[in-house]
């Protein structure tokens, strides 16, 4: 994501001056804190202090949330749950059904073990943060 330098800084090799536009990952932007500010494009999403911020229509917000929170499954779960509930109260349960179907297909047609199929289906559907819940009998019976 593109950021504009608002407070000069150095990475040891190069000095970045006020006004420069740099392309950096979300993790580094969080580390740099007040030194940079995101250049917002239509359809962008970012995190500020663990809260999701968006601008415009984000094509696949669930995928973007997973990308932004890949190192923090607890935060990922919180944000995905909030997003799903805002979208449709039944959205999560529809995703559970989709996960079950995809798991079965990957297991039987794809030849994956049950565990591998469950994990891969959760990854594809952006549900890794919910994997424990998905595998529990309570969710599958609901």
């Amino acid at each position: 994501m593109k950021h504009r330098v608002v407070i000069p800084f150095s990475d040891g090799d190069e000095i970045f001056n006020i006004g420069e536009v740099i392309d950096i990952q979300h993790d580094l932007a969080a580390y740099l804190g007040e030194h940079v500010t995101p250049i917002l494009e239509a359809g962008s999403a970012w995190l500020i202090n663990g809260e999701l911020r968006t601008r415009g229509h984000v094509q696949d917000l669930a995928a973007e949330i997973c990308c932004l929170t890949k190192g923090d499954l607890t935060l990922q779960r919180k944000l995905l749950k909030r997003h799903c509930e805002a979208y449709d109260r039944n959205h999560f349960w529809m995703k559970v059904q989709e996960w079950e179907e995809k798991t079965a297909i990957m297991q039987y047609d794809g030849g994956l073990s049950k565990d591998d199929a469950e994990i891969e289906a959760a990854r594809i559907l952006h549900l890794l943060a919910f994997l424990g819940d998905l595998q529990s009998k309570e969710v599958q019976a609901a």
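The beta strands are 2-5, 9-10, 15-16, 21-23, 36-38, 44-48, 51-55. The chain has a mean pLDDT of 84.
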